[in-house]
Recover the amino acids of this structure.
């Protein structure tokens, strides 16, 4: 009997500071052989590791869950300090030094126990360090397109700072889509696939976009050997041109305030030039992509934690994602789920979203319980608050969604916020906001 048992690694505590070189040498040896043969020696009462600090450290680095340990009574161990002064210590002296905050480098101590445990043989699998060898779980993809659709669902994360007192708040992070880092990857893919299946995808794509759909289309066009020409309103941040040019797309700035105002001209140009205009504003593949994927995966994610949402809040651009989410959740759960749409207040510009009266297709086929107006600075301040409380750099339309949530957050219940993208494309707007704050002025732009 070796007296060695497998112990939950969380029960073992380090009293000695493991030496990095020794740790790496243990790590290499275990990884190379796939086995561990030297058990750790631990003190029974405290579960402090008396011998093998480097082995425990190596096992933690290998994500092991268990460690083979030989447990001895404190008074059985002979502990000698060799540096700075040689001295013999009792286990209690050692614990006292530890709790007094002394650093106890492993190499300064020698520990002997009356009976050394024999050699053991545990594989990494025995120690719970085996990885699930499923390429999907391990996020291995066979193409960049697969990275998109096999990457779903996008994460749903609890915003802990806002979840208390009968309220739980979850955010769906669409920035985890790989191309535009936004909700728009889903529709670009779906519109292109539908056009390909109908044999209607030409060599060149034209699209009016406020950036995200353009980036997603340009990226997927590149993968499929197509070209994209994108029409962007003058009100959109300058860096969008750079992103699109990096992707090799052609960028045309149009003198409109809203993207949708350019659609008729883009349509006429596409017909004239014999190219494909997918038209996210009218193309049902937009709405259907969110019905089939976004809404359904959100429901499954919520079901996995036993939640039916009380409120789902999201921004309105084409109205594609929120209309689909409304249709899905109202059909399945009825009036229990309240749908809140977010639009910019009159005369305010928030990239990606616009006012319902500017014309949206699918919103008129579904039900919303409330539409909230948000000003640009409220959206920016929403983004700042989320960054400062939750560490997430969200985009301006996500900031607007967050602001709308704050307006209705007095009600208890489960809230879901759809965050369409991250903050990185909006440096200009953030910089401008900080400058205006510094000047104390309320100038436009
Ligand atoms: N937020 C951002 C940043 C967007 O780019 C968009 C759409 O362009 C939206 C919100 C609105 O999404 P939808 O078109 O599905 O209404």
């Amino acid at each position: 009997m070796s007296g060695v048992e497998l112990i939950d690694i969380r029960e073992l505590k380090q009293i000695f500071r493991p030496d990095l070189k020794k740790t790496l040498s243990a790590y290499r040896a275990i990884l190379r052989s796939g086995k561990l043969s030297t058990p750790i020696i631990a003190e029974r009462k405290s579960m402090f590791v008396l011998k093998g600090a480097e082995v425990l450290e190596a096992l933690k680095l290998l994500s092991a869950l268990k460690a083979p340990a030989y447990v001895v009574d404190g008074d059985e161990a002979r502990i000698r300090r060799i540096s700075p002064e040689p001295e013999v210590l009792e286990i209690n002296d050692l614990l006292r030094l530890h709790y007094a905050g002394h650093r106890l480098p492993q190499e300064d101590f020698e520990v002997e126990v009356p009976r050394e445990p024999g050699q053991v043989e545990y594989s990494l699998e025995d120690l719970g360090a085996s990885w699930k060898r499923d390429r999907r779980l391990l996020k291995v993809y066979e193409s960049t397109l697969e990275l998109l659709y096999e990457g779903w669902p996008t994460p749903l994360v609890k915003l802990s700072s806002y979840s208390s007192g009968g309220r739980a708040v979850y955010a769906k992070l669409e920035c985890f889509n790989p191309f535009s880092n936004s909700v728009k990857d889903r529709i670009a893919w779906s519109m292109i696939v539908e056009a390909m299946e109908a044999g209607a995808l030409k060599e060149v794509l034209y699209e009016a976009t406020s950036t995200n759909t353009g980036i997603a289309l340009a990226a997927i066009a590149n993968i499929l050997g197509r070209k994209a020409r994108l029409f962007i309103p003058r009100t959109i941040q300058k860096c969008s041109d750079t992103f699109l040019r990096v992707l090799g797309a052609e960028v045309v700035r149009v003198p409109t305030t809203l993207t949708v105002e350019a659609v008729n001209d883009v349509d006429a140009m596409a017909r004239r030039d014999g190219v494909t205009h997918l038209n996210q504003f009218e193309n049902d593949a937009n709405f259907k992509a969110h019905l089939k994927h976004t809404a359904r995966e959100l429901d499954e994610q919520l079901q996995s934690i036993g939640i039916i949402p009380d409120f789902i809040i999201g921004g309105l651009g084409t109205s594609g994602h929120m209309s689909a989410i409304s249709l899905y959740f109202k059909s399945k759960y009825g009036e229990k789920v309240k749908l809140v749409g977010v639009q910019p207040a009159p005369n305010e510009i928030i990239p990606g979203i616009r006012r319902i009266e500017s014309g949206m297709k699918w919103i008129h086929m579904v039900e919303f319980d409330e539409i909230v107006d948000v000003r640009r600075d409220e959206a920016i301040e929403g983004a700042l608050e989320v960054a400062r409380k939750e560490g997430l750099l969200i985009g301006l339309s996500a900031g607007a969604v967050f602001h709308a949530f704050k307006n209705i957050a007095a009600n208890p219940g489960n809230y879901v916020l759809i965050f369409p993208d991250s903050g990185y494309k909006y440096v200009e707007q953030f910089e401008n906001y900080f400058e205006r704050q510094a000047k104390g002025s309320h100038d436009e732009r």
Notes: The chain has three domains: 4-123, 144-179+285-439, 184-283.
